[in-house]
């Protein structure tokens, strides 16, 4: 599906198709073309109508590109990722949005589920000043909305880390390893996406491209600062989850040592019994104890019980139990 928003003569309206003359650099018309899950035929408009480079068009339609920014002479190609986390399904994922920025137009290509795109599109339908500010300001508004969605997800990750820390300290339940590794994977995904996005937006903030004026550079600098904070948080989260994993492994090792020590004590207690019963079960003459056969049996049992009791109290005094 394609939506064309056009701002001309102080008004913004949605039109079914574009006039090629509106795309000329000297045109006073501001255009936002939003491609939501475009078909193959719709995707060809990126090359035929807008004249974008084939490599950029192919990358935008496949949407398998890491965040980056490239200049193609008269327009910029920018790739950023929105964030999505569904706690119920434990689904932490990012979704690519591609931007083509020209002197008087902005083209967005995405999967049709981007919250930031939908929010800004609703604003464009209600008010005219969104497009009146120009395509660069429109790009900033979308990117700023995207980064705003990162903060709740970052806070969610921090809460999950807090819960895992409490579980490692207070609980001995099974399954913690899987939870820890799942959070570790989510943090790695966040860091892998945020860091290159920070660098891409940083190039806009530093005015590496003529299309970005000083006022917009200030705005992108604010977005850059937000991405930088999230990237720093991701590094801290990575260190925290590594510490949680180490603590969990240490806890498991300690529990294993306790079990091994208990088993060693039990085996040691039964050692004298094995020796005594083995001796008296030998088919050779042995020194006889006092009394008849039944009395001697209970005398041997008494010796075994005294041996076990003596060793038990010795272990207790030594701190093994």
The CATH architecture category of the largest domain equals 2-Layer Sandwich
Structural class: alpha+beta
Could you tell me how far the N terminus lies from the C terminus, measured between alpha carbons in angstroms? 72 Å
Any idea of the CATH class of the largest domain? Alpha Beta
Q: Write the CATH homologous superfamily of the largest domain.
A: CorA soluble domain-like
Work out the radius of gyration: 35 Å
List the helices and strands and how they pair.
Elements: E1 2-8, E2 11-15, E3 30-36, H1 40-43, H2 45-48, H3 54-62, E4 68-71, E5 76-86, E6 91-101, E7 105-110, H4 115-126, H5 129-132, H6 135-148, H7 150-170, H8 176-205, H9 214-280, H10 293-318
What does this structure look like?
By secondary structure, this protein is of the alpha+beta class. The chain has 2 domains: 2-252, Beta Polymerase, domain 2 (2-Layer Sandwich), CATH 3.30.460.20; 253-318, Methane Monooxygenase Hydroxylase, Chain G, domain 1, CATH 1.20.58. It has helices spanning 40-43, 45-48, 54-62, 115-126, 129-132, 135-148, 150-170, 176-205, 214-280, 293-318; strands at residues 2-8, 11-15, 30-36, 68-71, 76-86, 91-101, 105-110. Strands 2-1-3-7-6-5-4 form a 7-stranded mixed beta sheet, sandwiched between helices. A hairpin with a 3-residue loop joins β6 (91-101) and β7 (105-110). α6 runs parallel beside α9 (214-280), α8 (176-205) packs antiparallel against α9 (214-280) and α9 packs antiparallel against α10 (293-318). The longest helix is centred in the C-terminal third of the chain and has 67 residues, at 214-280. The protein is rod-shaped and about 120 Å long. It starts with a strand and ends with a helix.
